[in-house]
Structure formats: C-alpha cells, structure tokens
C-alpha cells in the first residue's frame, strides 16, 4: 500500500479512486488474514459505501478531507455504529456498538475509509495479543513472534500492508510497543488531546487513542484529524487541534535532548546500540545532548500495575450480564453475574480485576492504591524537573525486539516488565512517539522513543523525522 | 513479602463476582503475590506529605446547559439486552430464600 499522504493526494487529485485503493487493501487482507489473524471483522460493504461516497465528492469537485480514501484499521475496542465490537473478549462476542467513537466520526469526516476491527489483548490488557480470547495475531515480519500488544492487530495491519493507517489505544505502551515490534511509527498523544468517547475503557486516567503508520508524516496527518476538543469526553482538552504536519521538517537544531539511562538500562545490547546511534544522529542534527538519570521512572511500573488494575476493576464492573453482552443464566441475579463474568473474562483480565479490587479494598487501599497515587506524583514531578533542563527525552521503546510466542505467557510479571519504558508517559499524561530505528536480533526492527511535555507533539514529530531520514527513509 | 494469602484471593474474587476453582486460587495467589511483591519497592519510599495524583491534569467539573438532547433510542438499547420484558431489562430473581 502507498503511504497515507500519497494515497490521499492520489484520491484528491483523481489519480486513484477511493474504491480502487480499498480493493487493494481488501485484497491484501484476504491474502494474509487467515495466516496472521489481524482482523476480527472486515466490513467490506460499509467500507465500499464510504469509499464510494469519497469518490462521489471528488467527482463533484468537493473538498474531500485530508485523509481522502485512506483505508484505516480500528482496534476492536473502538465503537463503530452497528459493527461488532468485542475487545477480544467472549463477554462482548456478538455485540454490535449502537454508536460510533468520536475518532471514527472524525476519520469519516476527513475522508478516511474504516475497513474493519483488529485483534488485541482482551480489553487491551497485555503486550503480545496472546491474551485475545480469539487467538493471537502473528508478527508479519516473523510469524514465530508476537506483534506486540495490546494494539498488535492494528500494528500487524499496517506492517502487512493491509492498511496504511491503523488506530490503537495506549494505556501503558499499547500503541508504542507494537509499533516498535512491527517497525512502525506509533504515537501516544497528550492525555485529553484525542477524545476517548466510544473507546471501551480500560484505565480511564491513562488511556489515549493514537495512530500507527509507516511514516512520521502519516502519523502527523492522522493525529491532526483525531485531535481536538469533544464535549462528549469531559477529560477532553479545550484547545483546538494543533498544527503538526507543517512542523514535521522543523528539525532539532538548538533543541536540548535528555538521554535517560532509566529508559535504556536493562535493554538488550542491540536496542542499547540503536539508542546510542540515535543520540549521535540528533547531535549531528544540531541538538544538545544531556545525560539524565530519572530513577522515578523505574518506580512507575509498580505504581502502574496497581493504578491501571484499580481503574479496570471499576470500569469492568459494568459487564454483569444485564444490559449487553454475554449472560450465563443462574438461579439468582448474583449467581448469574458471577457465572457470566467467570465464563466471559480470560485469565489476564481476571488477574487485573482481582489485583485492582485488592488494591482498592478495605485495609489495603492506603498501602497499595494510595501509595501508587503518590508515586504517580513523584513520576510527574520527575518529568517536570527534566523538562526544566531539556526540551525532549530519548530512550528505548522496548527492552527487546519482538519475542517468540509463549516466551512470557507463563510468567505475568515478565510480561509486565516489558512495559517499563513506556509506562511513565501514561502516568504523566504526556506524549511520546516510537520510531523505527535500525534492526537488531534476527533482523527485526528496533523502536526508539521520544518523550516530551504536554502538547509538544509537533516537536516530537520533528525529532522523529530526523531519525527517520537518518534511518534511510527520506 | 506482602503475604498475600489464599483466603485473601478467595475474598477478592467474591467481591469482584468471579468464581475460582481450587487450582485457580493457587495459581492466582502465586501470580498476584509476585506483582504485589514487586510493588513493595514503593514501601521503601518516604512518601510523607506527597500529594496523591489520581488524574494527570487534575479533573474539574465539566457542566453543560440542562437541556434535552438526542440520546440512544430505547428500542436499540433494549435490543442489546440478553433478556428483556416489556421494554425493560429482565434479570433472574433478586430476592428469595436466604442462602
């Protein structure tokens, strides 16, 4: 598939029809979806209708939007009217959303063509898609390995050339980690920049929707469309959508970049080497490099694995077999709820619900949840101090390249530890981008991460673009 | 060690409306214990006086004008229910003989 930018240009100029672009996308999906298990649902009919509508607008000479004719894959925790939405959970199997997420409406308004729903770890809880109730997604670059998670299906869709754009959600790294493992650009925007309305909640104070693409410019285009105030999300920032594409080539000359040991140490040698090369590239591009130590980031993992489950245990209480989704009948209502939830949730979701319930329960609230909220404050303060010295931070996205199926499933803690570099940005609500930079073990892609203060996306894209060019993608 | 006990896990499962087999209780006690042990590194910190953060940018109340606006159609909502009766959600008996 061509890039988002090229596809939109071709469709806007009449050099390609949105329908022909869609047919190419559908052909790629048909060719590999059985093998890779990327899409849980493909909406051929709806996508053809959306593409035809774009073509008609082009024919009438109307403005068709900046994502005209761009096929887009949606993570299956995003609602789209009358389309099955499962969160990869048996508890929602067969449920069709009665309304669309704001991001879906925004994509359609910009001329994009949603083609279907992608696999994820159940309720976005996981780092490999191995927690999907419907089976894992394979990494298109090496099918013996995971694509990352939880937005693994969305990452695989772009990596396998099924769509040039996919949306994911990032609660502790769920966009950036699969982007790194599949060789893509992945963005976790500033909390509140993108409306969460219609995103089925995992941990509401941490969740953000963002794009996965092959190029930095494509990601900037998509985020311009997704961002902006939404009265339907009370945590939505009031400011208008920022200008991003115009700043992609701003470079990093004169910027101060903090290289954070705590976002590098413990990673595999190939990953460390990639970050070190990225440091050199940014220095040559005119940035000032400052070595930083931010030990609070390490503590972030402990805080996250109490805060996110605590919020999840509350959010997932709504799945009780009464109003929608699965019901397993039993003699009385309490037994029905228990039977429904026991049959409907997988092990990882149960682990997190129980962890969260425990952390919030009488006698343990202060020791666990209360303590975690204070550590969250320490993390935010640490970021604030760092940004008094530097403009942005650089680190690894993940400790390793894509790992093999089954290598971490027996040990939940080992899986959790793979999120250590991505979690701090979710705790602070600040943006971060993962950008492919070189390859490591078995020729697999490595992601490096740029982090910045709230609403500094334009600066992150500019930094990522410098790395992209240096990595041979002009 | 946080000393998470098997009966704590059984109690939490009950609160969360999940039923556990004996084997699952063993497994979850071990796995949850590991996560809580890892989290105990926070206990070594002096957090006296640190203000807890529940939300990254501090939530303030968001209000709108109190006026009617479109919402989901009643029939659409009821059609999603596993069981319904006369346009209402139907559930198994709530009151009955004491267990």
State the end-to-end CA separation of chain B: 37 Å
Using only C-alpha atoms, the radius of gyration of chain B works out to 23 Å
Oligomer: heterodimer
Going across the biggest sheet of chain A, name each strand in turn. Answer: 1-3-2-4-6-5-10-11-9-7-8
CATH superfamily of the domain at 4-240 in chain A: Amidase signature (AS) domain
Largest sheet of chain B: 2 strands, antiparallel
Do you know the CATH topology of the domain at 6-44 in chain B?
Histone, subunit A
Strand order of the main beta sheet of chain B, please?
1-2
Strand content of chain B: under 5%
CATH architecture of the domain at 4-240 in chain A: Alpha-Beta Complex
According to CATH, what is the class of the domain at 4-240 in chain A?
Alpha Beta
Dominant shape of chain A? globular
CATH topology name of the domain at 4-240 in chain A? Amidase signature (AS) enzymes
Unreliable sequence segments of chain B: none
Description:
The complex is a heterodimer of chains A (474) and B (99). Chain A is of the alpha/beta class. Chain A contains 15 helices and 11 strands. An 11-stranded mixed sheet of chain A has the order 1-3-2-4-6-5-10-11-9-7-8, with helices on both faces. In chain A, strand 2, helix 4 and strand 3 form a beta-alpha-beta unit. The longest helix of chain A is centred in the C-terminal third of the chain and has 25 residues. The model of chain A has no long low-confidence stretch (mean pLDDT 97). Chain B is built from 3 helices and 2 strands, in the order H-H-H-E-E. Chain B has a two-stranded antiparallel ribbon with strand order 1-2. The longest helix of chain B is centred in the N-terminal third of the chain and has 18 residues. Chain B is flat and about 55 Å long. Classes of the chains: A alpha/beta (474), B mainly alpha (99).
